[in-house]
Amino acid sequence: MWIYLVRFSNFFSFTTRPGRKDGPLDRTEASRATGTLATTEAGRYRSDIDGLRALAVWAVLVFHAFPTALPGGFAGVDIFFVISGFLITAILAREHAHGRLRLRRFYARRVRRIFPALALVLAATYGLAWFVMNAAEFKHLGKHMAAGAGFVSNWVSWNEAGYFDRDAASKPLLHLWSLAIEEQFYLVWPLVFTLALRWRRAAVTLCAAMLVLSIAANIWLVGEHAAATFFLPPTRFWELLAGAMLALSPSARPAPGSKADTLSIAGLTLCILSFLLLRPEFAFPGWWALLPVLGTSALLAAGPQSWANRTLLARPLAVWMGRISYPLYLWHWPLLSLTFILAGPQPVPAGVRGAILGASVMLAWLTTAVIEARFRFGPPHMAKVVVPCLALLSIGFVGSRVYERDGFSFRRGSDAQADVATASLGQGKEFVRQDCATGSQKFPGLCATDRRTPPHFAVWGDSKAEALFWGLVRRSAPDQGWMLLGMRGCAPMSGVERTSAFLRDRPQDCAQANRDILQALISDRSIHTVLLAFTDRDTIGPRFAYSSPRENIIPNADAKVLVLEGIERAVIALEQAGKLVGVILDNPRLPDPERCMDRAALAWPGVRTALALGNRSSAARCDLSYADYLKQRQALDQLIMQIEHRHPNMIVYDPGPVLCDPSTRRCPMTMDGKYLYSYGDHVSDFANGRMADALLPLLPN
After folding, report:
1. Which domains are delineated in the chain?
2. pTM of the model
3. pLDDT, mean of residues 334-351
């Protein structure tokens, strides 16, 4: 793709003659715009910008390795965005001013700068992951390899930010989303900038307009579409355009003397405050991103002779770190992520995390000295562009093949004490049809109906209801038909609805599904028993409201009161329709079983000792104490107990006795050589069979 872009950019290549006006920036104006504010001052190097890079990369590294120590360290990425927009635009403006702006040469430099180190890290991550990841994890790595090689990781991350998203710590290439944003900016902005010059349109005005539109979209969308706002270019480009605007503005000269010092100190203060005050749970970027963006802009505008830039950012160690910041950013997260995967649910010792950061620095220095030096500097031979492009194309192809072949299923994790194949869900599908039509009503969510006989029992709820459903279908008599109705992330309620988004869903879809399902269950006379099954994360934490003002019988009710109201109203409506109602309490929330299987790398000398894993199997380390299990569900249990007290005929089923070991008072990952969980904290077919055996005798025939 980049090779074709380099050729395509010949169309936009032009040479300006000295003294000739080629657009809104003539030689004098462009020189002013790229003087003391650019990476070079009349071609000179600004060491303080490398120091600023060091500040940004170490904020990110500390946040990833020690998140509680620097909770807003992720804002270092925003600092990089501003720097990139500033430097790239300064280069374009300076070359235009000197009459030698050629996009072919610009893109070739980008390839030589970005591709070699990225190809090396992608290849190394693939090799290490072979010994660390199981098949399912390796499959996802293949997808992220292909996305990383194609610079579309941000789009993949956005598409994955839903119900089935995986833990961020299990994605060694997740950090490439920010590199993708930058590369997409590099593809768009130079072309737009060059066209503005050719058509004699004001580049500064165009940049300002794009910046305003982007920041407006960011602020408008961050509340309801947080994932899209975080990962997609239209709501992120404003940060790079802020740097571009600074490079293009003729009036943005460093303030002299004390004014520049004040500006630099204020900028550094804003950056540090963003590291300390921001939190991952904030609606970010939104307004919060102004902290690091304004801070970085102030530092760049203050100039290299301002106090903070000169005395802090231009220190030799900071400058050296800044020069290796790109490969350092590339290396650190795959090494940390693979270590987190090896450790499973157990925290990685702080000393190990610190050692990984040290190893990342060493690898970054070697990458800079050995790899980057060969491709980035020296004569611009065509091979320095073609070879990295071919390397990334090959890596992208390998990644896509890994994904297509399901991560090579023979590489599934192992467990000496249990059969890893039992960590599965969905047995019994031969007994049902994937359709829960009742009359003319069809439901878009979780739908399944017993094909053997008309259903007399129904399970209504979220994905926990689905996990239980398969055990009930398999273990019930053929004449006890079952129906599954529900929606993932949607607890069964009536008159109350969730108003906050759950991952990427639309709360109104959950509310509409609950209305339709309740009406269908009430109307279906053949169904005499309805089980409500849901997890506490659908009820404890999100925001709720009454469905309509006339249903608001408790003014200013808090979320727990609303949840109680919503569930009880559903119970009342079903009981008034002559249904027997049961509520299934939540099962223990253990880690995903994939993280609880042994991995080949654990057999390497010293790995278990370094990670303080001992000799216990990974599955055994995923166990949960029964006391902690009760604490997990305490808040929701208190609400269910209140409903049970007012509805004595309601059945309440506790899965704890069949999923936990009473002799050890622990809730294990495996039992009798089989896994109790399938994905996330959802029970497996082995577990839902045990639950069904205990639950069915409590129900009418």
Report:
1. 2-409 (no CATH), 421-698 (3.40.50.1110)
2. 0.80
3. 91
